[in-house]
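Module 6 notes. Inverse folding takes a fixed backbone as the condition and produces residue identities as the prediction. Think of it as a translation problem where the source language is geometry and the target language is the twenty amino acids. Below is one complete input and output pair. Work through it position by position during the lab.
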């Protein structure tokens, strides 16, 4: 199973795993899950958890029926339940010497480039501090109705921006079946999916449970995002104790294999990105260096067109204004104007502070 070779793993857990049908918190299950996470951490895996459950726990706290909640009330309940959720994680994980942090995201935080870069840095810093980020959608300020399944998509976006190797969606079914296993006895578990379009064109079903509505449709959306991100994805039954250990031992799940490498996925994103914010005109020496797979340095830049910020998408043109590459600039347009034509060693003196030496790093650039 792909967990073994994964360095960064995002694990999504749904409400039905934390709260049973009798609206009781599944503390024994969460403890077994924490033990699984501990075992992964011992093997130097970096773990990010995306957890539903704020509204479900808020309903328990307030003795409300989730089915009858309107949007404005559900936002308030989510605010109450989020504290319950994090306290539950904090107390349970502390028994295994695991430290957690909280990140609340909206889909816009992962869709808008600058905000996603900020989120990425936060994740990287938390992981380097040996903390486990516990992510939830910020239901308290959602502007549309809160539906289960958003966290499937959110988890795939988190996997995308953190360059995760694997996304595990812990569900209430063993994986993707040929038919709905709750309705058809002859339904077969699909163990591996290599090609989303071809392998799944005859499958169409939705599952519904009390604490979460939605089903495989949102998980398929997550699989598409993962496939374009160079990230494998697993759908597995999380209702059992020690669900991650069970995946490793029994392999009773569905694995979606990504055929796209992370670097290819990143470069595809760059080349297909929204219209560039500016242009850098470079000399022949820099053009030759780019063709040889080198980064763009300040010394080879002749002119700057347009206004752009750090991390923005830009065009790179040669002396005849012919586009030769696109990339993400490590400097603002104002900074590039100050350092263009100068050696990298002079950048700190010219700007007055320490920064990167590459104006556009080779990993952030695609030849056109």
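Target side of the pair, the amino acids:
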């Amino acid at each position: 199973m792909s967990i073994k070779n994964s360095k960064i793993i995002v694990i999504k857990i749904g409400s039905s795993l934390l709260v049973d049908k009798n609206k009781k918190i599944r503390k024994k299950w969460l403890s077994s899950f924490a033990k699984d996470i501990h075992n992964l951490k011992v093997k130097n895996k970096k773990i990010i958890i995306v957890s539903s459950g704020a509204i479900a726990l808020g309903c328990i706290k307030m003795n409300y029926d989730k089915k009858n909640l309107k949007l404005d009330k559900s936002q308030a309940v989510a605010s109450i339940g989020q504290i319950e959720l994090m306290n539950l994680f904090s107390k349970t994980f502390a028994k295994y010497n695991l430290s957690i942090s909280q990140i609340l995201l909206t889909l816009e935080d992962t869709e808008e480039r600058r905000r996603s870069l900020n989120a990425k840095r936060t994740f990287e810093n938390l992981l380097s501090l040996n903390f486990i980020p516990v992510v939830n959608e910020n239901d308290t300020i959602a502007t549309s109705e809160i539906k289960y399944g958003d966290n499937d998509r959110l988890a795939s976006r988190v996997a995308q921006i953190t360059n995760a190797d694997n996304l595990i969606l812990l569900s209430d079914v063993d994986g993707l079946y040929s038919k709905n296993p709750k309705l058809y006895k002859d339904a077969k578990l699909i163990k591996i999916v290599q090609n989303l379009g071809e392998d799944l064109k005859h499958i169409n079903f939705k599952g519904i449970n009390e604490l979460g509505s939605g089903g495989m449709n949102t998980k398929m959306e997550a699989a598409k995002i993962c496939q374009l991100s160079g990230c494998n994805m697993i759908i597995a039954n999380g209702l059992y104790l020690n669900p991650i250990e069970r995946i490793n031992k029994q392999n009773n799940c569905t694995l979606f294999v990504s055929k796209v490498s992370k670097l290819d996925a990143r470069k595809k994103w760059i080349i297909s990105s929204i219209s560039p914010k500016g242009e850098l005109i470079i000399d022949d020496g820099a053009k030759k260096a780019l063709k040889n797979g080198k980064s763009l340095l300040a010394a080879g830049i002749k002119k700057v067109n347009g206004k752009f910020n750090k991390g923005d998408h830009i065009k790179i043109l040669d002396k005849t204004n012919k586009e030769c590459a696109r990339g993400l600039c490590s400097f603002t347009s104002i900074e590039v104007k100050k350092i263009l034509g100068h050696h990298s060693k002079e950048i700190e003196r010219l700007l007055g502070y320490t920064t990167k030496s590459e104006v556009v790093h080779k990993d952030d650039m695609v030849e056109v």
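Reference fact for the lab report: DSSP finds 14 helices and 15 strands in the chain.
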